[in-house]
Amino acid sequence: MYFKSILVSLPSVYAILCVLGCGFFSDIIVAAEVQSATFSNVLRADFRHRPPEMVLDERTNTMTSPLKDILEEAAAKVGYRVEWSARPFARSIHELRVGTVDIVPRTIRDEEREAFVRFLGPIGTQTRDILFLVKAGEEGRIKSYEDLYQLTVGVKRGTVYFERFNTDPALRKIESTDDENMARMFIMGRFDTMVVLDRAAIENAFKQLGYDRFSYADYRQSNRIEHYFGMSRNSTHAAIFDELNQALLDMAASGRVKQIYQAYGLAAEVE
Length: 271
Hints:
alpha/beta, D-Maltodextrin-Binding Protein, domain 2, 6-stranded mixed sheet, 3-stranded antiparallel sheet, 40% helix
């Protein structure tokens, strides 16, 4: 009877342990995946929806992007393949910091990130205005940078805009996790204006929400963007950085990067 009692209770104990320790077991699974990638020629890369250069169909988990094709081609040249996962950018930055992802495309270079990221490239440059989105009819509300001090400004967590804005402690910034969340917060009036790095992405988010009563302020900041892939300094494949970087630079110099962009109907300014 004693042994029977133990046997009967074991499933219940197991169930309790599973509930209490689900996070623990999840960590074990993640660690196992990382260890598996460590001992194979697999680079783990994160993907996010940033149209038109990065398009994620969440229904089918389909990822299409010239940047995806470029990285996969460069990786193949050095004997590696790439496994992609869809992640919010804020999470990708954390993963780059701790080394649970190897590479994240379109990672803007700045001093803070230099501590935990090595930058592959650049494979090209773009001159793109930083915009400030406002309600339709309020374009004249922001005519200069100084006008921002009177407003609340929506920003996307983890995004680098331009030096003065990034480091200005006097601005009242309200963080959001992604474009959809930012669009919803703007519609609800959570902030007065929204700083915009990727116009196509935020406009797509508003379109999905059926909202079009927005415009852009008279003030805008010209910004030169270099296109890098961020590679974690804690990557288990850090030793291939130089070889992979050279493969990417060679693709840019030969015109292959432009060719891939053109296949998507996009233009890449490459130096």
